[in-house]
Task: structure prediction
Amino acid sequence: MSPAFPSGGPVPTFSSLQLQWWQLSQPSAVDPAAAPDLKSETTPYVSAMLVTGGPAGMPKLLLGMRHGSRTGLKILRMQDIMNKVNASCGGTGNGQTVILGENIGTPSNPIWDPPFGEPLTHIEFEIPGTGLSPCVQWVPCGGGQGHKVKFLPQSRGTVARVLDDSGSARWVAVVTTGFVAAHPSPGSSPPPPLGTGGPIPQSSDCQWEGDFGSPMAVVFDVTAAADSTPGTTPLPEAQLLRVLLGPQGVEGYSWCVKTKTYLAPSTFAGRTFAFVGDMLGHLWIHDISGGPTGTNRLYPPPPPSTPYRPTQGTWSPTLLPVGHVAFPRDPMDGLYVNFVDIEIDGDWAYCATGRGGVFVVNISDPTNPRTDVVLDTPGLALGVAVRVDAANNKQLIVGDSLCGMRLYSQ
Result:
């Protein structure tokens, strides 16, 4: 793509921009709620992230977050995508739909073109073991089966580089998944008809009902997929590492996330933290540091032959917050501010909270964060980003519902 408006050059036209684009339709092979429709309204893709480091500046992986699905993370090799794109007939100034994940095999023996990964992101609904029943999903105002998928959100994600317990560098993906949707059993039997909105009795084998309503995010190791060879070779599965939860008994709704690895001379040098924004007005901070055995928070991973929370034993690798900020409720009506976006720059976390404006949080000590400044924007603060201009000055960009884009200088 050519520069939009070169200095001293003519005003660009549509043809001079040499635009070319593709719409990438991506069906689901695992989630029945998404499978019938390539662009299902109940399971839309809402954001994406990249694993960098591929040849010629190309990313290694594209990871998409899909709302309303138990398998809400889609993983594809970027080179596989470009192979499909380059084989299409779209040209400059044109757009074209390219289907990612076509079955070029048979229904009983599918061969996906290109290969993709689709791990379970709502871990509370895994099969807990041989002969055991998984957790049942029901949430207040869910409205029965037809609306259940709306309470399985995957909204944002981020990628970080950490060390495993042997010292090897690994790629990890952190995905926000809303909240734990496995409810405590109401004790009623038999279950009411679907669509009545009544509670459904919980499975006696469920191990997550005590965390119902807790904000949740999941951490996967995607290194094997990132290092695999593009083409028709199957994509190695993402490896579940940890589940990030809120404190016991605190309701939440994780929505956005960024990570930060601290550098010297900070007392936290070498450690990595995930900063999770909660739609109910919280900032949750989790230690996801890699490093040697004993101090590593992510490795070793769960044994592949056992469920994440076995009925017997001590293996339950969930991580609770090590730091927390509760943003004040709106003084007009007492409702929560909605934490919808986060940007981290240096020792500051910029938190867009809708009608609450932008909270600027000092995170120099992630275990003891504090709010230093609040930027009261005219409308709803919906997005934040930091840019550096040509003079090397940093600016905070805030997306506002009334005035569009606002710039704040340091």
User: Anything to note?
Assistant: Residues 78-86 form the longest helix (9 residues). The chain has two helices and 23 strands. The CA atoms of residues 263 and 269 lie 4 Å apart. Confidence is low (pLDDT under 50) at residues 1-6, 32-39, 187-196.
